[in-house]
Specification:
The protein is mostly helical. The protein has one domain. The protein has 5 helices and no strands. The longest helix has 28 residues.
């Protein structure tokens, strides 16, 4: 068949190799999402709130993971040493952000409602 290009397979293999570079980041994000969703469901919150909490944790972990990978590389630690603090800070960071947002709401909006 003259319309088929054999270079498509090579492009697919190259894309998969490029995707493999981001597997640790994806693993950290999935681990954080699963941990936060499980924690939210265990605490008895509604599923929608648990899902949004897990999504926020995942976004925080996605930003924090390269920082911990750099620290692990600097101190000659394995890459897996970056997972635990990343997940921990992402999950705890959501609670911290929630309290700061509540405080900011009280300062900005709360005084106008009185």
């Amino acid at each position: 068949m003259p319309t088929r290009d054999p270079n498509n397979w090579q492009a697919l293999i190259d894309a998969l190799r490029h995707f493999a570079d981001y597997l640790p980041n994806l693993g950290a994000a999935l681990l954080t999402f699963a941990l936060a969703l499980t924690r939210g469901i265990q605490h008895g919150g509604p599923l929608k709130k648990s899902f949004l909490n897990a999504l926020t944790c995942t976004l925080l972990a996605t930003g924090l993971f390269p920082l911990f990978v750099g620290l692990a590389a600097r101190y000659d630690l394995p890459l897996t040493a970056a997972f635990a603090p990343c997940v921990f800070l992402a999950v705890m960071g959501v609670d911290w952000l929630r309290t700061k947002a509540d405080d900011l709401y009280e300062v900005v909006v709360g005084r106008w409602r009185r």
